Amino acid sequence: SDVADRLAWATGQISGHVTVDERHVQIAREQHDEVVTNSSSALTKHVANDCFFSSDPEILFCDLQLPPHASKELKFSGVVPTHSPPSYRGSYIKYSYIVLVGLQRVNKPVTLINLPIRIINLPGITLVDGPKKASSHPFAPREERLNYEDYFMDKVQSLCCKRPRSFEVKTGDGLVSIVRLTKGAYRLGDPIEVNLEFGDLQCVQVTLKLQALETISPESEVKEGTNTRCNTHDTKTIQCIHTKSTAVTLHIPLNVVNSFSTNIVLVRWQVHFDFVIAHMHKSPEVVDAGLTSVSAKGLDCDWRPLERLNVSTLSWELPIRVVPTLPQYIATIAWQRTQTKDVV
User: Fold this and answer.
1) What are the contacts of 215-218 at 24+ separation with CB within 8 A?
2) pLDDT on residue 70
3) Is the pLDDT of residue 175 over 90?
4) Distance between CA 78 and CA 157 in Å, rounded?
């Protein structure tokens, strides 16, 4: 068509939503009332009652005429409160964020577009200097805000600096292993280096699992004692018979969520250990049990594995803290993976 397209108005707004499995989770009425919104626009009416955050709508333009085959680029920015939970899709609950874009042509109904976005947040950060109070007038220009990105990453770096920690894993029979970590917290995408130094008991196998745990608060449970859901993201198994020490590396994915908690759910991380312990001394029983013959010089020998070995499994959990990483890093990796898939 050679007729110019006339647009009456367009507006943008950010909203956060919570979706729960009603068979296990209930949201109290006062929690529903915590929606942060001062708007009665068409966009806000479109938001369902599971909305826990809604920003003020921002007018992008009014009475815009576009010639045929023309386009116009508009920028929209909004602020999500620092206490908001990160984007999360769990077994019991889901936190999601969308950008709502509303557009109306002259004498036409309103068109709404939902653009999903991922929010990465570090709960517990207190901003020393908050942003300047913006004007409530929708046509007023936005005032300059502080650079939260640098402040955010400085906090993350301080949490993830090297702080060596060691833990002793014992039973009533003696020391199983000394577990050493290099950090107190890890970022999304970081490797977790675990050093194991075995003790008096003979450990023949160790399995390590990187797990995220989702626990519903007692106030939000439909039935008392709802089970904690566990998702395993990485697993490593090592054979360690006759081993004094070893190192294992687990990797935190980029598409997961960091540790956080709300009044409904607690998401935490841990490394789960399964130590398989043999019920015998390290020496000489284990070493000599398979020895059948030795040459005169003592250099060559035939060794036969044990046919039976009485063992028991000791399970142990080590809590860790997982914090966010730089959003641009996650976006770059996601873009590279998408490009690779397209090429294949």
Assistant:
1) 215/265, 215/266, 215/267, 215/268, 216/24, 216/25, 216/92, 216/93, 216/264, 216/265, 217/263, 217/264, 217/265, 217/266
2) 82
3) yes
4) 25
Residue 300: pLDDT above 60?
no
DSSP 22: T
Q: What's the rounded Cα separation, in Å, for the pair 90 and 257?
A: 10
Q: Which residues contact 302 (CB under 8 A, 6 or more apart)?
A: 291, 292, 293
CA distance 36 to 318: 37
Could you give phi then psi for residue 340, rounded to 5 degrees? -65, -45
Is residue 279 predicted with pLDDT exceeding 60? yes
What b/e readout covers 148-172, taking b as 16+ CB neighbours within 10 angstroms?
eeeebbebbeebbeeeeeeeebeee
Q: Which amino acid is at 187?
A: R
Q: Please give the DSSP secondary-structure letter assigned to residue 130.
A: P
Task: Say how far apart CA 257 and CA 262 lie, in whole Å.
Answer: 14
The answer to whether 278 touches 286, Cβ cutoff 8 Å, is yes
pTM above 0.85, yes or no: no
The pLDDT-based confidence of 326 (bands split at 50, 70, 90) is confident
pLDDT at 170 over 60: yes
Task: Indicate the range of 94-98, 190-194, 260-264, 301-305 predicted with least confidence.
Answer: 301-305
